[in-house]
Amino acid sequence: MTRFPSTPDLDLLFRPRSVAVAGASTNVDSPGHDYLEAIKRQGFSGPIYPINPKADTVAGLRAYPSLREVPGQVDLVISCVPAPAVPELVEHCGEKGVRFLHLFTGRFSETGDAEAARLEQAIARRAAELGVRILGPNGMGLYHPAGGLSFRPDLPTDRGGVAFLSQSGNNAVEVITRGNARGLAFGKVVNYGNGLDITPGELLRYLADDPETTVIGGYVEGVPDGRGFYEGLRAAAARKPVIIHKAGRTRAGARSAASHTAALAGQAELWSTVLRQAGAIEARNQDQLLDLMVGAALLRPPAGRRIAIVGGGGGRSVQSADAAEENGFEVVPLPHAVRERVRERAPMLADWVGNPVDQSILAGSGLSSNGLLELMLEGDHYDLAIANVGEDWFFGRPDAADRLKHACGRLAAIAAASTKPVAVVLGPTETRNRDHRALVDEVRDDFVARGIAVFPSVERAAFALGRLVQAAERRRA
Amino acid sequence: MTRFPSTPDLDLLFRPRSVAVAGASTNVDSPGHDYLEAIKRQGFSGPIYPINPKADTVAGLRAYPSLREVPGQVDLVISCVPAPAVPELVEHCGEKGVRFLHLFTGRFSETGDAEAARLEQAIARRAAELGVRILGPNGMGLYHPAGGLSFRPDLPTDRGGVAFLSQSGNNAVEVITRGNARGLAFGKVVNYGNGLDITPGELLRYLADDPETTVIGGYVEGVPDGRGFYEGLRAAAARKPVIIHKAGRTRAGARSAASHTAALAGQAELWSTVLRQAGAIEARNQDQLLDLMVGAALLRPPAGRRIAIVGGGGGRSVQSADAAEENGFEVVPLPHAVRERVRERAPMLADWVGNPVDQSILAGSGLSSNGLLELMLEGDHYDLAIANVGEDWFFGRPDAADRLKHACGRLAAIAAASTKPVAVVLGPTETRNRDHRALVDEVRDDFVARGIAVFPSVERAAFALGRLVQAAERRRA
């Protein structure tokens, strides 16, 4: 199955001209209904054919008793039929000249049952003979807003250049939902499940050359084709940032991965080495994956490691310095030139203020941490910045909402105008005060709408930035 | 200054019978107003005396031109006067027989100015001569809801047994706010600032014996009195869980810490060793600190390391297994006895389902992950459990709100009824769908109101549980 078709071959998978759903269902709580709703809501522009022998219409669309009865050409078939019905469906796909069959259908090799694994292999062989490429089985398939494709009706409709490959379906949904809330606009997302025919390696090769794709994320438990995966990874990482979350690193995780997607998961150290050698950035959990994708998609790569840090009180300053230095940054002391600029505007601060800038000593001085951030970003003293919003400080003051919005608006303007990357830290909204929660959510949404990279803690911001600097240095070397 | 008074000496600090605020201000955006509001809102039961030579009333309370004019006895004075005015205030405290002077007043040694440092030392000597104990300077002081004390008007009024010592004021506010949202009810919280007289070591000795205190958290950058701190730590950790976040670990962090609270911060490894030898649990950042405090306060210590994990789809199962094993747990395969119970109710799952329990294979089987959690907690197969809510799965289904609330209600009941600790994982509400955000917030608040420990990721839950198991094993050894 290790084939590498020239890259345009998969274009039609992501932009089919027509889609049929085999096993389409009138039950609104079933995948056979969800796919139809999902594709309709994404505004799929071609014909959609529900296949259902017992219904005239499904989800408001005219249904057909069999794939063979569908009047026009079908590029992509999504299968929700049970496993034993798949061989017949493959035959129909062959007769109909279908190019891609996505098997949402599961209960194959991932169950650990030998008979189910044999059926899976038989399907692979027959589909290859008929020229039908298979995505899956046991995967949710395709989410590609620009192509009108989605695997769940409630997913966002924004279009962008962030691609994501995921062995796990629920993980794909989590990453899309959470990533979108943090400003990631997705392009091609594939939950390839058992990876029987179309492998993550082949998908990576395709995405490497895909002009729509600017950043690639991946979640793998194991890979069906190790060499192909490595080569795909290397090809992609040479052209754009590639971030991989490898799960199933431990004995227990590998055992669980085996029953999840029939993948043989390997050891942690081996995988870290392979990823590094291929030029990919490794994430150890979903939070890191998201932070790295946000950083890669929304921030320019910094030119160096000299970091300016502002905002938050004294405690946050100390914690920020720790986080920055532990992730490889140089917390360069405030240079003389900046100090003299401070002296002009707030003389009593000039010999006290440092980097990180402790917001609590600025009160009443005439200089805010935004003001200091602007001074520090001017000239060539720093390569990048982290700005802590320090929202808890505002909540202790009168007119908290107005002050917080004003400060964040100015920070967003500074970050957007700077040629250097500026990461914003705005904490998770952990408070019992519902007004404060709503306010922080509103402010975060505003940053995100303006394309600013927001992180929930300074440690997570510093980690992501540190890895991205490392990757940029490796690419330059 | 290394004195260890017998522990009852500090009782009056936390439960003063009367409080005066020197530097009380009619400006609602000033600390001299905040302290009065904060104490009033916490329902302080004794007299509160604003000291202000120019106003008749401050914050609705009768003001006095000088501490000497106050009619009754004053146990605690909170100072918001500028540094140069403190020596006179100390004299007044002596005359008036004041027991504790909390210096919110800053701009002493933390500025790096030699003259300011000399003034600080002179104040310490004179106060000692007069028998006035000093808290601070450069610290927000006391938050103790049961004693009617608080340093900010907007902090929660719940009373509980979680003590917290913090060198940083903004860090104390963040930990109180975030901790409270996660179910921590605080007892004695102290932001001791420069720790000139009352040191964290003395406070730890006091909290070790304090019957109100069940769990102790701490945030330190450096300590004014190393040996006293170590001894306090050891005394406290022998009696209750003590979690310490040491910041200023790096060169940059230490430099920043020095200007923040005049503390000499040391090296990371040395501190880790000292904390471990003293029996404390180390947190490396605020998230870890909160997770460990939540675990210590809301969960029983597990009897062993055999962990049951349920909920979420296949991807989450694999990630959960990784997180558990990487934090020292044994992800024990589903025992025969449980498998046979599954066979009775869902025969086709019996040979497929494992630990972690993949929620996505349960659909339509008649068994939910809650059902499996109950079966796994029965008998002696497991010592503790992590339950992933897997909220994203619900959002893809009809009646998501009802189903999610029902499942979480049942999970809360199982966790509350079990003699084994059950940690719940409910993700951060990262979605652009505001209804979903509100729903997750509501469900989380319900868990918290029922005393359940909720973590925002399975990695954070596993980390906290792993460290707490380790600490429990050390205490038993």
TrEMBL record, chains A, B:
| Molecular-function GO term, any one | transferase activity
> Which keywords are on file for this protein?
Transferase
Q: Which Pfam families is this protein grouped with?
A: CoA_binding_2, Succ_CoA_lig
Q: Could you tell me the superkingdom of the organism this chain comes from?
A: Bacteria
The record's section on SUPFAM superfamilies has: NAD(P)-binding Rossmann-fold domains, Succinyl-CoA synthetase domains
Please state the span of the N-terminal signal peptide per the UniProt entry: none
Question: For the CoA-binding domain, which residue ranges apply?
Answer: 13-108
User: Which SMART domains does the record match to this protein?
Assistant: CoA_binding
Q: Which PANTHER family match?
A: COA BINDING DOMAIN CONTAINING PROTEIN (PTHR42793), PEPTIDYL-LYSINE N-ACETYLTRANSFERASE PATZ (PTHR42793:SF1)
Q: What is this protein called?
A: Acetyltransferase
Q: Which organism is it from?
A: Tepidiforma thermophila (strain KCTC 52669 / CGMCC 1.13589 / G233)
